[in-house]
Amino acid sequence: MKFSEFEPSGIDELEKQKIENPEQVKSVEEQLKKYENLSQQELMQEFLKESKKQKQSGNLNSESLENIKQTLTPFLNDNQQQKLNELLGIINND
Q: How far is residue 71's CA from residue 42's CA, in Å, rounded to a whole number?
């Protein structure tokens, strides 16, 4: 599945975030546009590469990974949540 085919299951949550955190939502939407034409494999590679870079610079730790998980989970279906958990497990153990 390509990122451009992603359809969030948490539309209500997205609308809530747009109201409560419009600047943050705009920033996320801009970031998403950079990745919308990548394949799932390419997305995983980019995610792992960026995560490793952030971890080495001290900007990514277990707490921030949990925050990422809590932020993304409402927008994902069960299969996507499982993939996210797998990726976060890889990053946590890296």
A: 22
Quick one: which of 57, 86, 74, 63 has its CA closest to 16? 74
Q: Using CA atoms, how far apart are residues 5 and 12, in angstroms rounded to an integer?
A: 19
Amino acid symbol at 5: E
Q: CA–CA separation, 23 vs 59, rounded Å?
A: 21
Per-run averaged pLDDT (10 residues), the chain, 94 residues: 57 71 79 84 87 89 88 87 89 82
pTM for this prediction: 0.56
Give the integer Cα–Cα distance in Å for 79 and 37: 20
Structure token digits, residue 58: 């001290």
